[in-house]
Write a structure and sequence with these properties.
The chain has about 140 residues and is mainly alpha-helical. About 75% of the residues lie in helices and about 0% in strands. The chain contains five helices and no strands. It has helices spanning about 5-10, 10-15, 20-30, 35-55, 60-120.
Amino acid sequence: MTFEEARELVALYGAGQLTPEQKAGFDALLAQSPELQKELRQIKEEDELLALALGPLRPSQSTRLRLSAAMLEAFNKAAREESVLAAKTWRITKVLVLLLLLGLLCIFITALVGLKKYRDKHPRPKPPIEAPQEPTGQPPQE
């Protein structure tokens, strides 16, 4: 194993993920190279810091109670705002429905006025009036 190959495997060595053959070659180079030892030490320190930073937090009971109270307050506020929003939405819906009905009424009235103007301009022809026949006492002829 070359020094460059070993540098690429430092992180895997620190995590214990090398094969036995790779580990043996890395150990041989590690014993001879102070630079590789320093790099391995830095990686192990970084891993420890990450483990500390990412470790589980254990809040105190008072912190948990304050957090629960804050969550309950946020929930209650959201519930109040939801009911107000629902009422506003209903009002807006009623206004929109009324506007729609008003628009439809305007269209209907416009159509009626247009129909009247059309009929005034183009009157229907009246059927011819037939003179009444005087009864003759005979049955009608076919």
